[in-house]
């Protein structure tokens, strides 16, 4: 499931620190905190027919993450929105677009870990690219269980949507080496948490389950899917899910802005066998697609 280069992105304009730069000139300082220590927060946004899906919810998480990390001189919500809309307009983008929105702690006066060295305020980066959904949502994906555990709150709170993604990257490397599409990550107690890049759900006996959001990201699409389940009279709840339980699920799927809702067909060589012939994944996928435009913030004319 390696993403492919799209030639339309060769000459895109990228918003950095309040200005637009051509792709080849879009650079940040070696003194920026994201370079020095992965000290930044980010959101992935998706554009559908002139609207940005769940923009307000994504911005809420961005600002809450920045507050948790005590960023200083953060741009206002209106300034962030203006930068996003300017970037899309400059690139003539209105559909099939993914935005990587990054907010770094900014430039340091000299290299070092101490945030007091950051005396120039935060830096906003808006990178918009033409990009399809990351996974094959028709045929589904395969997972392997990674030996790398998802961060627990006492080490690094998963509610901070931070750029320090090395544990996820290590898990993805294991998936690549095993020729799987993604890695299933467990929490410190050995229960299912999420994949290296998405939240995960399972269906058993016509009920929907997802892991507690302790070690996993409290995903925006995750929360929406749980709401949508109520709309189609499917009971949903959070619980500790063991590997044995998920191997024997009727249906398993992943959720995320970059993939929407993706069926999982195999985990660690075990086929996900829908012995109950349930169709909850398909019903929720349709419900999600029906909601996308309603929950998208339209770009100004």
Detail the topology: elements first, then pairings.
Layout: E1 13-16, E2 19-22, H1 33-37, E3 40-48, E4 51-53, H2 55-68, H3 77-90, E5 97-104, E6 123-130, E7 141-145, H4 166-177, E8 182-186, E9 192-195, E10 199-204, E11 207-210, H5 220-231, E12 236-238, H6 243-247, E13 251-256, E14 260-267, E15 270-271, H7 280-292, E16 296-298
Parallel strand pairs: 7-8, 7-14, 11-12
Antiparallel strand pairs: 1-2, 1-6, 3-4, 3-5, 4-16, 5-6, 8-9, 10-11, 10-13, 13-14, 14-15
Structural notes for this entry:
This protein has helices at 33-37, 55-68, 77-90, 166-177, 220-231, 243-247, 280-292, and strands at 13-16, 19-22, 40-48, 51-53, 97-104, 123-130, 141-145, 182-186, 192-195, 199-204, 207-210, 236-238, 251-256, 260-267, 270-271, 296-298. β1 and β2 form a beta hairpin. The chain is of the alpha+beta class. The protein has two domains: 7-130, 2-Layer Sandwich (D-amino Acid Aminotransferase, Chain A, domain 1), CATH 3.30.470; 141-292, D-amino Acid Aminotransferase, Chain A, domain 2 (Alpha-Beta Barrel). The two termini are 36 Å apart. It is built from seven helices and 16 strands.
